Amino acid sequence: MKDEALGRLLVERALLEGDFVLRSGKRSSWYLDKYRFETEPEVLRAVGESLADAVREFEPDAVRLAGPALGAVALAASASMTSGLPFIIVRGEAKEYGTANRIEGPFERGELVCLLEDVVTTGGALAESVLALRDEGLEVRNAISVVDREEGGSDALARLGVRLRALFRAEELLELRKTAAKSDG
What we know:
Elements (H helix, E strand, L loop, with lengths): L3 H11 E7 L5 E6 L1 H5 L2 H18 L5 E5 L4 H11 L3 E4 L12 E2 L7 E9 L3 H12 L3 E10 L4 H6 L4 E7 H15 L1
Helix pairs in contact: 1-7, 3-4
């Protein structure tokens, strides 16, 4: 596994068990609460560093990061501070006041951006972000998520010509949870 210490932190601080309805409408017996890892400086810093490393590895020519609102904004900010790359925010829809922008932050048409996300399930929300970025003339080839639940997100993005990379696959975190439970018990 890429960074087992970070994986253990995510499991310890943000992996919840129970009965959850996901954004996709699917039910799950576990949920990775992004706000539990995006609001703790220690974990957010580690995630931002890992995302910045992944951007350098998988999209080294990117000139800007992009994070969908609201969930990936803290991730994009953390990775931006680590990498030195500026970032933009992708709104769910254009606001109806002020600048009425859907993409917030300065950018130039034609720039290559790397899209960041917290947790990907079916990829629907991330696909919408890809289309919004492309509508503004930006190039998107890779997306990096903290976790890929492996429930179709990679395929949904592939249909748009975008490769999904993940710091962790769901099965890796669930295995870490089992290992932690065995050592606790």
